[in-house]
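Lecture 7, part 2: worked example. A protein chain together with S-adenosyl-L-homocysteine.
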Amino acid sequence: MADQTSPLEHEIRRLIIAAGPMPVAQYMRLCLTHPQYGYYIARDPVGAAGDFITAPEISQMFGELIGIWMAAVWRQMGAPENVRVIELGPGRGTLMLDALRAARVVNGFLAAAVLHLVEISPALQAQQRQRFKQLDVPTTWHTTFEEVPPGPCLVIANEFIDVLPVHQAVKLPDGWHERVVCIASDGKLAFATASDALPFFDATLPRRLRGAAEGAIYEWRSDNIALELGRRLRGEGVALILDYGHVQRGLGDTLQAVAGHSYTDPLGAPGEADLTAHVDFDALAQSAESIGARIHGPISQRDFLLRLGIKQRAEALKARAPRDKAREIDLALARLTATGPQGMGELFKAMAIANPEVGALPAFERSSP
Ligand code: SAH
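Predicted complex, written out as C-alpha cells:
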C-alpha cells in the first residue's frame, strides 16, 4: 500500500495518525493548496487537456461580456480615476484578458484600471505573468485577497468560491457531528463522524433545517470571503461572483472530485483531482449583508448572459467567422446558457455584492441592459 500512496496521501495519513481524524475542510484544503503537493500548486488543470473546463475557456464571449459589465459599473461608480480590478483565482487569465480587450470601447476605463490578481498557485501565476505581458495595464499578483490594498474596486470571481474548503456536519441521534476523514480498518481513507456533537449547531441553521432526519448532511464554509468583500465594498466597489451552487440553504453532500473531465472518488487520490462543493449563495449574501453590503441576484448564468447580450455578440462573431467556426460559436453559446444537465445556464449563478450607493446594476435588473 505504501508504494502506491502519493506524497500528499502520506502526509494526510501522518497527520491523522498524529492528531486524529481530520475535518473534511482540512482535507480539502490540503488536497487543493498544500504548499508542495496541492492540486492547484504545481499544475494548470483548466482546459481541454486538463481536468475541467470553465466558462471563459469555452468562449471569449464570456469574458468580453464581463468586461463590458465592469466598465459600465465603473461608470456608475462615478468613473473613479483609479479603480482596482481584482480577480480571485484567475486560472489561465483568459477571462480577464477577454474582459479588458472588450472594455477598451469604454472611454477611460483601461487608463483607470489597476489590476490585482489573487492566485495561490505558483504554476498558474507564472502562466498569468506570461500572458499578461501583452497588456499595458499595471498588474500585481497576490496570494491572498487581504493583501490587496484598499480603494475603489471591481472584484471578479468565477469558479473560485467552489474551491474554498467546505465543512460538513452529519445529523446523528444526539445532534450534528462534524464529518471527518479517518483511516478505516481496511487501511483506506474513509469518511466518518467526529465523536462529539457540535455544540449549539442546530441553532445556527435556518429554522426549516433544524428537524433534519438522521444521516442528513449540512455544509458550510468558514472562510471570511464574504466579510472581506462586504468590508471592502463598503468603501466603494462592486463584486461579481459567478459559480455553481444553490440559492437557498439546503441539505446534502455536494463535495465532488473531478479529474480528466470525469467524476472520481474524493478520497481516491488526494491532490490528484479537483475538489469542489456547491456555493451557498444564501449564506454568502447573508454575511455580506450583515456588514452593510447590498446584494444583487443571484440570477441564473443564463439570464445574466442573455441580458448582457450574448446572443447578439454570438451573431456578430459569426458574421465575421468561417462556417466551421460559426458552428463552434453556436455550441459555445448553447453550453454557456442551456438549462439541461449539459448546460451551465441554470446551475451556475451570478450574484453581485455592492456598496448600497451604487444602485441598480446592469443585468441584475430585469429591464437592463
Ligand atoms: N477563474 C478561472 C479558474 C477557476 S479554478 C476560470 O474560470 O477559468 C480556481 C482558481 O482559483 C485557480 O486559479 C486556483 O489556482 C485558484 N485558487 C484556488 N484556491 C485558492 C486560494 N485559496 N487562494 C487563491 N487562489 C486560489
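The chain has a mean pLDDT of 94. The longest helix spans residues 60-76. Keep this in mind for problem set question 3.
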